[in-house]
């Protein structure tokens, strides 16, 4: 089975830099996705929510929810270093 870790490629200062990147970018994704999850269907549809100022009002609810979930879950996975 192929090793999913990059420890053979990146070590020392490079590994520390990647950890620092994960600890900064991961929370940014989480903080960007959480209000969308908390906002509910009104925000996911764009009716008076995050997408309305862009002119997007016909976005199906499921796509908005999946976008919010992928930002939040992806940020959490990024911090934990899954598949990194």
Please give a structural write-up.
- The protein has three helices and no strands.
- Helices cover 62% and strands 0% of the residues.
- It is mainly α and 84 residues long.
- α1 (13-39) runs antiparallel to α3 (61-80).
Average pLDDT: 75
- Give the helix tally: 3
User: Which descriptor suits the 3D outline?
Assistant: elongated
Helix content, binned percent? 55-70%
Structural class: mainly alpha
Distance between the termini: 16 Å
Quantity of strands, as a count: 0
Taken in chain order, the helices and strands follow as HHH
Rg of Cα set: 17 Å
Question: Strand portion, in percent?
Answer: under 5%
Low-pLDDT stretches are: none
The main sheet comes to:
none
SSE topology sketch:
Layout: H1 13-39, H2 41-45, H3 61-80
Helix pairs in contact: 1-3
Quick rundown:
By secondary structure, the protein is mostly helical.
Could you name the key traits of this structure?
84 residues; mainly alpha; 3 helices; elongated
């Amino acid at each position: 089975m192929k090793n999913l870790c990059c420890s053979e490629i990146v070590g020392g200062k490079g590994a520390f830099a990647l950890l620092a990147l994960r600890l900064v970018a991961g929370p940014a994704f989480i903080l960007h996705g959480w209000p969308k999850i908390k906002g509910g269907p009104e925000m996911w549809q764009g009716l008076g929510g995050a997408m309305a100022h862009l002119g997007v009002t016909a976005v199906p609810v499921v796509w908005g929810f999946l976008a919010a979930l992928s930002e939040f879950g992806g940020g959490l996975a990024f911090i934990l270093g899954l598949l990194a």
